[in-house]
Amino acid sequence: MDIGSAILIIGLAALAAAFLLLVIGLVYSELMNSDVPRGVANSSKLHMVHGLFVGIAIVGRILHRLGICHQVSFIRWFVACFLTRLNPVPVGLRVKELTFSEVPVRVYEPTGVCEGLRRGLVYFHGGGWVLGSIDSVDEVCRHIAIKSDSTVVSVGYRLAPEHRYPAQLDDCEAATCHFLSVAEADFSVDPRRVAVGGDSTGANLAAALCQRLARREDGHLPSPCAQILVYPALQMADFNLPSYQQNQAVPILFRGRMVFYFLQYLSADTSACQDVLEGNHVPTELRPRYESWLSASHLPPECLARGISERPTPQYDAELYHVVRAGLEPEVSPLLADDDVIRKTPPTFLLTCEFDVLRDDGILYRKRLLDLKRDVAWQHVRDGFHGMMNFFNRGWLTFPSALRPVESVVDYVKTL
């Protein structure tokens, strides 16, 4: 080997080592800023998985700044290639890749004998409207279909930042309405027993869709018979609710990250994150109305047990409001819808987790539904964290605690 080649190899090795040390240092710094409470389920594994996700995000950020690829594109690629594995289809289930009104879907049909028509569930995956896919919830949808003897349709809606609001909601509506129109003829499913549901931002889409369909009431198709909302994101008006304060650094969803996802969804400048966190995007005249729905006094006493702090009065920024105003509309923030709309929504299953920034969104929505005499089934996972259901049957990424929320959904679907 000549001297030039040796120098080149040594230089490349030094660059690789420097890159690795940089990533390790940044991951360590991020981990030091995280908080895994003592009572959370599978806490040691959550630490490990959080470190992995932080590392992926940091490498993506570095590649983005070097102009090699977008951070989001790298994360999607890494998760699809290394963290997502599709297992063989189990006996008793038929899986089809289809397109409903130009929206890709995956349909899970039990193959056992069924007397009469089956029930159905149209499912929207989470991921902050930015990440996630049909594959990411494949095991969840398989389990629900088999255990509840129901046909499940998983919707591959378009993602931000390539596609902004309302593309995601439009796709969910198109796929749902298509399924409702062909459910009986093509899938032996009773269209009057079809629910919609999802987790995290997928639950946001489910709630927003139910409200959109309730407002229309065109009568051409039956409305969803229920909405299944698993740790839903339901409002962009207040990021200082007790759950946001108490769980602001609990993996895998940090308080600041939720604002980032909302801004990506709305096509807004993500540099506005801090102003939105402080509430500067909410007009002064709207705050009393939102306070009547979002007050911490509406929460159960146990939600306040870990303490909250008073925040300074936000300084309204009119320019910021005009950039993100769609985020305060009910189709992005279903918790902020008028009573007349919420009163028309179907029976609801709500699942919340104690160690989740979105805990209070779900609990406050439950209160609004109950105040309006709507049927609500609520399951609260006291040692749960955001995103836990996505770690169901995921090989080495599996969390034993993930089975509980999935089984809770199965039990509810069986009642439809």
TrEMBL record:
Domain of life per record: Eukaryota
Keywords: Hydrolase, Membrane, Transmembrane, Transmembrane helix
MF GO annotations: carboxylic ester hydrolase activity
SUPFAM superfamilies (alphabetical): alpha/beta-Hydrolases
Regions crossing the membrane: 7-28
Family: Belongs to the 'GDXG' lipolytic enzyme family.
Protein name: Arylacetamide deacetylase-like 4
Organism the protein comes from: Scophthalmus maximus
